[in-house]
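Hi there, hope your week has been kind to you so far. It would help a lot if you went through both lines with me. No rush at all, and the record is pasted right below:

***
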Amino acid sequence: MLSFLRVLSLIAATLTTGLIAGLFYGFCCAVMPGLAASSDRTFIETMQNINVAILNGWFFLTFMGALLTAIVAAALHMGGSGWRVFPWILAAVLFYLVTFVVTIAANVPLNDALMAAGDPAKIGDLAAVRHAFENAWLGWNLVRALTNTAAFGCLAWALVMAGRTTA
């Protein structure tokens, strides 16, 4: 039973971490470059709409689930044959914690400030609002895309190692 729970938690952690890594990667490679070519009003309005749309149960389940399932996987791999896999899972937890902290401490406050700017049709200086948001948000999103991808890579390798341990 422990072996099954170890594998299940590791698969869940890998899948949820991969989904979130893909989200941040997608913003780096497509969403933000696409919006960069937009007018200030379109940029602000679109990012405000994205900030509202992303606050949903599926996102929270995946974003929080990645951290929780990785912690559970780490706990379940402390001991016995799990010790070979544990360092990789622990590294993933630490990388994901950086992702989590950056999101909460940097990206969310930037999103909140953008929302507080109000209706783009009523903002006096659209360029200033965009300038205060865009470059900082891009930089922090890159950090979390890299740390989240590193967490995903560690978990993928942990799956490989777990397979070698049980084979």
Summary: The chain has a mean pLDDT of 95. The CA atoms of residues 42 and 154 lie 38 Å apart. The chain is about 85% helix and 0% strand.
